[in-house]
């Protein structure tokens, strides 16, 4: 009985902890101070009005833009991303760990991925939040990790209600976008690969690289073989002829290789119909903010028509 009681208390503690993450504890507009709860540091004091955020995660810069906050700097890995280029024309591109460059931006908030080897040094420059890219089991957006993190960003930037409103609008936009596909995607399965050193990697749902557009917006099913590999932490695809094992209806590959050349390789090595293969620009499909996902969805629909 005592063990059972301890388990109940432990479970309740976990629930309360999950409930309280990324929530406002207190705020003072006159002093430009807010206190929020975060995963890594418990409670953290940040500015009431964030004006010079440094955003190292690929999902955050354009979501901040949607919320009306222009970032002071973003990760240099996004330098070739067309959605960043179109919407954040004068933003600074920062190499993670380049403390001298970061100091010149005088950020008032730094948001980065977890773990980040440099976060202990960032905290000497500005309040720093490390974020693990997963979803809370109590999230109102359930397994849609990209929406959960958009909402959390809204809390951090003091734009919580704006984030909720934009997500509500996004649900309608998703339905409208899906109508543009000339067939029912739910009748087909798909595998999404992204180019890595030495081959490719199968990308899970809500793992960026077009997966939000493919699996969530358009409604393709996750290929069974890809799912099996993910469950066994064996997602590397060393050569394209391995696609034969997937027997997928559609294959989507994010790569910087010439699309025509790569399509021909997939056809020759995996025996796939080229009309069932979509090549996506690696740099443009790296981001999974709402602006990018909408643009990616339109690109994919055009490729499938």
UniProtKB/TrEMBL annotation:
InterPro entries: ABC_transptr_periplasmic_BD, Bact_iron-sidero_bind
Coiled coil ranges: none
Family: Belongs to the bacterial solute-binding protein 8 family.
SUPFAM superfamilies: Helical backbone' metal receptor
UniProt main location, coarse: other
UniProt organism field: Phocicoccus schoeneichii
Transmembrane segments: none
Domain Fe/B12 periplasmic-binding: 52-305
GO biological process: iron coordination entity transport
PROSITE patterns: FE_B12_PBP, PROKAR_LIPOPROTEIN
Origin: domain of life: Bacteria
A family per Pfam: Peripla_BP_2
Lineage per the UniProt record: Bacteria, Bacillati, Bacillota, Bacilli, Bacillales
Signal peptide location: 1-17
Protein name (record): Periplasmic binding protein
Record's keyword annotation contains Transport: yes
One Gene Ontology term, aspect cellular component: outer membrane-bounded periplasmic space
Keyword terms: Signal, Transport
Subcellular location(s) of the protein: Cell envelope
């Amino acid at each position: 009985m005592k063990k059972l009681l301890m388990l109940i208390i432990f479970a309740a503690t976990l629930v309360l902890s999950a409930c309280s993450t990324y929530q406002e504890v207190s705020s003072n507009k006159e002093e430009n101070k807010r206190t929020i709860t975060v995963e890594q540091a418990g409670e953290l004091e940040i500015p009431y009005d964030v004006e010079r955020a440094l955003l190292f995660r690929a999902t955050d810069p354009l979501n901040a833009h949607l919320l009306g906050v222009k970032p002071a700097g973003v990760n240099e890995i996004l330098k070739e991303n067309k959605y960043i280029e179109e919407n954040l024309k004068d933003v600074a591109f920062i190499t993670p760990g380049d403390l001298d460059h970061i100091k010149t931006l005088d950020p008032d908030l730094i948001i980065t991925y977890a773990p980040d080897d440099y976060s202990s040094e960032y905290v000497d420059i500005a309040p720093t939040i490390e974020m693990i890219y997963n979803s809370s089991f109590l999230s109102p957006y359930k397994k849609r990790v990209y929406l959960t993190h958009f909402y959390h960003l809204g809390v951090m930037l003091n734009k919580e209600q704006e984030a909720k409103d934009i997500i509500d609008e996004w649900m309608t936009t998703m339905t409208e976008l899906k109508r543009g596909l000339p067939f029912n995607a739910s009748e087909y399965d798909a595998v999404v690969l992204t180019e890595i050193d030495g081959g490719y990697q199968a990308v899970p749902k809500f793992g960026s690289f077009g997966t939000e557009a493919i699996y969530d917006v358009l409604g393709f099913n996750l290929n069974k073989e890809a799912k099996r590999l993910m469950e066994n932490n064996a997602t590397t695809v060393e050569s394209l002829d391995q696609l034969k094992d997937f027997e997928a209806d559609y294959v989507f590959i994010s790569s910087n290789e010439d699309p025509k050349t790569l399509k021909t390789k997939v056809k020759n090595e995996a025996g796939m119909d080229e009309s069932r293969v979509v090549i996506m620009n690696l740099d443009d499909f790296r981001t999974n903010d709402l602006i990018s996902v909408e643009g990616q969805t339109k690109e994919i629909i055009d490729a499938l028509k």
